[in-house]
Write a structure and sequence with these properties.
- The chain is an all-alpha fold and about 110 residues long.
- The protein has one domain (about 1-15, about 35-110).
- The chain is about 70% helix and about 0% strand.
- It has five helices and no strands.
- Helix 1 packs across helix 4 and helix 3 (about 45-65) runs parallel beside helix 5 (about 90-110).
């Protein structure tokens, strides 16, 4: 059931994407951190740990997705990253967004996705 809701939500995200183009999701490379969000993530061990956990969960969801679902999963993660960049240097915002994303992705996996 959650998989259907997830895919429906992702389809809605695709239809409403109004965020700037964002690269495909990947592990953050702190040596190349340039944006306020990247610098905050890399400069805060707690946030970096959350980012690694969230990215691991994303790739697990992606790996368990069908070929047809993968573009939707990728687009949804890219849209989330676009919104994350709106946090700037606000560590609280970055932590909150990571917590919400971790909970969501873990829920998708828990439902047998």
């Amino acid at each position: 059931m959650r998989k259907i809701r997830y895919l429906s939500a992702m389809a809605a995200v695709l239809a409403a994407l109004a965020t700037p183009a964002v690269a495909a999701p990947q592990y953050i490379q702190c040596a190349y951190a340039r944006t306020p969000v990247e610098k905050t993530i890399c400069g805060t061990p707690e946030i970096l740990a959350l980012n690694l956990k969230m990215t691991d969960l994303y790739f697990r969801v992606y790996d368990h997705s069908s070929r047809e679902e993968r573009p939707i999963v990728t687009a949804a993660q890219s849209a989330w990253i676009g919104r994350l960049y709106g946090c700037g240097y606000d560590a609280g915002c970055i932590i909150r967004m990571h917590g919400e994303r971790i909970d969501f992705l873990a829920g998708v996996l828990a439902d047998g996705y």
